[in-house]
Amino acid sequence: MQKRLFSCLRTLQHENPLGLPRSGTPPNLRARMQRGLPEKRPIKDVKRVIAISSAKGGVGKSTVSVNLALAFARSGLRSGVLDTDIFGPSIPTLLNLEGNEPRLSSNNQLIPLTNYGLKSMSMGYLVPETSAIVWRGLMVMKALQQLLHEVEWGGLDVLVLDLPPGTGDVQLTITQQIELDGAVIVSTPQDVALKDAVRGVEMFRKVKVPILGMVQNMSAFTCPNCSTTHSIFGREGVIKKCVEMNIKLLADIPLHPSICEDADRGQPTVVAEPDSLRAQVFKDLAADLRGQLQF
Ligand SMILES: Nc1ncnc2c1ncn2[C@@H]1O[C@H](COP(=O)(O)OP(=O)(O)OP(=O)(O)O)[C@@H](O)[C@H]1O
Ligand SMILES: [Mg+2]
């Protein structure tokens, strides 16, 4: 008798705590789909949740997220950062935690990894660094649900969500399913980035998430040789956009080689150079948000 195709397949072997196969093969999600999408709910054991967003890629969301979360931690708060970028997670590198895998708690929740007093969770801890994540939408949504709801934060005053670029499925799912206290939009002063930033603002407005303000990143660059200040991506783009859209300007972060170098060696600026002017910008940002959200 001819063998049926599926009887030849081995049962899926789950190799990591999320139950997500390292091979990238999606599990059966039909049952989950039939139950429908979950309702908007808070992240368990977390008092305040702040999303860091920008529709444009590479403008500094992860840099701002990690330094902001560290600034919260350094001010004595119980702080965490959740990397919701499924395809390009940055937090393991930024916190020098690459290659570490989270353990599971007794009730099968992921235990965050901690460095510099900051708790973190990321897709980067759950799949090997070299594996390309080539999942379709449903698989991405499953991973996202688990990152959002199956992490044992163990009591946090504030959780910073590092969002992926764009205004697609992941962003919409987060804004529609999670009780966010507010969103911070990051942009460079360049026109092309600002156009996308406006789209990001519109998305949060549509789903009625309060916009706490915008951060202008990579504005002024002061030459280390001649001390002249250059505006590589423009100088005031975000400042003007804030006025136009009636949004608060939260911070103006200079373009500085140390910010990039600190990130690459897994010691964000707030940790590597805590007394620098650059670190102070992140500390001021943390203080502003803390004041706005009263925690
Ligand atoms: N103010 C800054 N000065 C110098 N380099 C910076 C600054 N902000 C960010 N960078 C660098 O720019 C690059 C992009 O930053 P980052 O990864 O934070 O952006 P992102 O918006 O999270 O990107 P993605 O959309 O891919 O998630 C990184 O190499 C980072 O170190
Ligand atoms: Mg990023």
Automatic annotation (TrEMBL):
InterPro entries xref list: Mrp-like_CS, Mrp/NBP35_ATP-bd, NUBPL-like, P-loop_NTPase, YlxH/NBP35
Ranges in coiled-coil conformation: none
Keywords carried by this UniProt record: ATP-binding, Iron, Iron-sulfur, Metal-binding, Nucleotide-binding
Family, similarity comment: Belongs to the Mrp/NBP35 ATP-binding proteins family.
Origin: domain of life: Eukaryota
Pfam families linked: ParA
Organism: Aureobasidium pullulans
Matching SUPFAM superfamilies: P-loop containing nucleoside triphosphate hydrolases (SSF52540)
HAMAP family the record matches: Mrp_NBP35
Lineage: Eukaryota, Fungi, Dikarya, Ascomycota, Pezizomycotina
Name used for this protein in its record: P-loop containing nucleoside triphosphate hydrolase protein
